[in-house]
Amino acid sequence: MKRTLYIITPCHLQLSEGYLIYTHKEDQTRKECPINELAYLILAHTHISLTQALLTALAEAKVAVITCDAKHLPYALTLPLRGHYLQSERARAQVALTEAQKGHLWAQIVRAKIQNQMAVLQKTSSRGVTYLKQLLSKSNTNNPEAKEAQAARWYWTKLFGADFQRTRYGDPPNAALNYGYALIRTAMARALASQGLILSVGFHHHNRYNAFCLVDDMMEPYRPFVDLFVWQHHQKSPYSKALTKSQREELLLLLHESHKDSSTFVLFQAIERTAITLVSTLQERRKRINWKKL
Length: 294
Description:
Radius of gyration: 20 Å
Strand content: 15-25%
Shape: globular
Structural class: alpha/beta
Number of strands: 10
Distance between the termini: 21 Å
Helix content: 40-55%
Number of helices: 10
Order of helices and strands: EEEEEEHEEHHHHHHHHEEH
């Protein structure tokens, strides 16, 4: 199974015979990792240097390279320009979608997200599942964003309490949720780019300044996986407003956490499978996108 390499120390990284070579800048400790075992490389220190040859090798292996800011939060993402040998064909299928087809796909996304939110409430023994079931049964497919907003308002208060407000800079565990969402956003970006899709062309998200509109659409049903992970760990040891090193390392585990639907799966592999089924949906115009369920 592919790995995530998280580097938080000053070091120099270089390529040698298919291996990423790590050399600590102070004590010269040397370590190595096969590049073909990596899915994500996270650089979380301001004194990390690396060679152009290594960057190229990582891109060829479709490793997502994530650069963190001074607060150790994911800030930038490096992906290969050539995602798939049928890239232009798939891009044409993507941009050829009609507004009606985009609306149908967005309705699928919202439904899958709410179904997973229901599963979270069930797994956490929270009340409110019945309301979400009723919301799903309503015939308002022409306005799925209204359904999504109604579900969110209900869901957050049932999961984290009546006083909880889901905001970017709010009280804990908001910072943990932000970090988890950044991780699955990265995983989805890597998966979609590997399938040759245009990340900036979405079905619903369409901000002119957002280069990841498709990613933000497709990650929605996987947000509840983060919510459940954060809730479980927050109950055992509450997250701080500014995440600690150990809390960030703990959150990295969510991409490799095992779940069971019709079969056992790991989250980042499920995200890759979802990207593959999206391609089939775009090309055949009839299949449903496949998201794993909690």
